[in-house]
Every structure is written in C-alpha cells, then in structure tokens.
UniProtKB/TrEMBL annotation:
HAMAP family tied to this protein: PRAI
Gene3D superfamilies in alphabetical order: Aldolase class I
Cross-referenced PANTHER family: N-(5'-PHOSPHORIBOSYL)ANTHRANILATE ISOMERASE (PTHR42894)
Gene that encodes it: trpF
UniProt source species: Ottowia cancrivicina
Family: Belongs to the TrpF family.
Protein name, per record: N-(5'-phosphoribosyl)anthranilate isomerase
Amino acid sequence: MLNHCQTGKNHETRPENMKPRTRIKICGLTREQDVDAAVAVGADAIGFVLYPKSPRHVTPARAAALARRLPPLVTPVLLFVNETAASAQAASALVPGATLQFHGDETPAECAAIAQACGRPYWRAARIPNDIPGAIAAGGAAGFDLLKFAADYASAQALLLDAHVAGYGGGGKSFNWSRLPTNVAAHLVLSGGLTPANVGDGIAELRQRGLSLAVDVSSGVEATGPAGQPLKGIKSAEKMAAFVAAVRQADA
Ligand SMILES: O=C(O)c1ccccc1N[C@@H]1O[C@H](COP(=O)(O)O)[C@@H](O)[C@H]1O
C-alpha cells in the first residue's frame, strides 16, 4: 500500500470519494450523566481537565471514577497544564488507557519524558494566535509556525490546534483556520470555539492538511443558565447530539 509520502497526498490512503470518519472528543466533563450522554451520542474520546485553575477541573480520583463509566473503544483523555511529572504519572495510573493532553507550556522534552514515564501517548496543544496583519509566519498563522511545532513535537500522537486564549484553553474562541499550512506531517485535532454550527466548515477547511483530522469541543456543547450564561463543566445532551450530527453530516 502506498503511504502519504509516496502518493504525494497528506491524508490517509483511501478509495476515491470516501471521506474518513472524523473522530470526536468532547472535553471538560464533570458529571456522570454528561459522560453517559456523550457516549450515547457517539463520542470517541472524553476529556477530563486536571488543571486546578480551570472551571471544569476535576481531581484525578474524580476523573478515574468518571472514566470507569466508559465502554471499550471510547478513550479517556487527561488534560494537563504545566503539571509536574510526578502528578501526571500519579493521575494517569488511576485512569487505565488514558491519552495525555498537554495544554500548557510543556517543552518537547518534558512531554516526551512524562508520556514515557506514564507509558501513554500524548497530544500537544498548539495555541495559535489570531491574525495580526503582516505577521504571518512561513509555516502558519500570525507568527505561529505549525510546521516547526510539528517537527519539535514529533513524538506526539497528535497536535491539538486551539486558539491562543487567556487561561490556556477552553475559551470558546476559534482562530483563522485558513492560515494553516496545507501539508502538516502530523495527525491533527481541531479545537477552539467549535460548535454544531461551525464544525462542518472547520472539517472542510482542515481535512486535507494533516495525516488525519479529529475534532475536540468543550464550550460549544455546554449548557446555559436561565440568563443565557454558560455553565462551564455542565454539558447539554442536545448540543452534544447536534455536534456529533454536524460532524457526521460533514463526513457524508
Ligand atoms: O476546558 C478548560 O477549561 C481548559 C483549561 C485549560 C486548558 C485547556 C482547556 N480546554 C481545552 O481547550 C480546547 C478548546 O476548548 P473550547 O471548545 O474552545 O472551549 C479544548 O481542547 C478543551 O479541551
């Protein structure tokens, strides 16, 4: 079988006209009923935020209890921001089969060392600034060189593309997808401000740009309070279903 280098294409080799199934991670869950609803609508991965400053933070023990509800083939993902190796290792030991997501300032060496110590694959978040006119780097958007980032984090299972926001992530903000390079030698996970309304456009824009594409959503599937305020950490079953339906539509 030809690989992507031999074909000159940057996506998985597949029959003509067949779109790959875009895998879906739903992140920032804190409640049993939301985990069950996410699984029921077809999420492939469920993210638990182990960053104490996040409004969606759960303790490692709580993440482990929630992760025990997952059926086979649904992957728990543990999200860390600048966590110590010892804490990350202790948390991952509680959640068998979890993938690690590094969403802070972790260096390539730190990511590789922690992932190796945990014996788990890791995703590295690329926090992409929004466009500043005249500041487009060779490899990407607004001074962010995604090609260099991919080379630096070559041991990552995937690069997670997020908007650069205060608080490291979970800001519900998107970035300019069209500025990204077209041929990234990495598996990509698009995140940052995704919603049922825009995820199809994001998939269409990025599907061909990496080795594969998955999507990750948090804010865009959260419930709102009586005054319309976001309820961070509380998911809406209806919005999760609508998000998955929009992804399926994009893949059809
Ligand atoms: O969810 C958080 O609070 C969070 C905190 C610190 C780093 C990352 C965080 N979430 C991740 O951010 C992206 C984008 O989320 P959103 O859909 O824009 O809200 C996603 O990967 C979340 O898992």
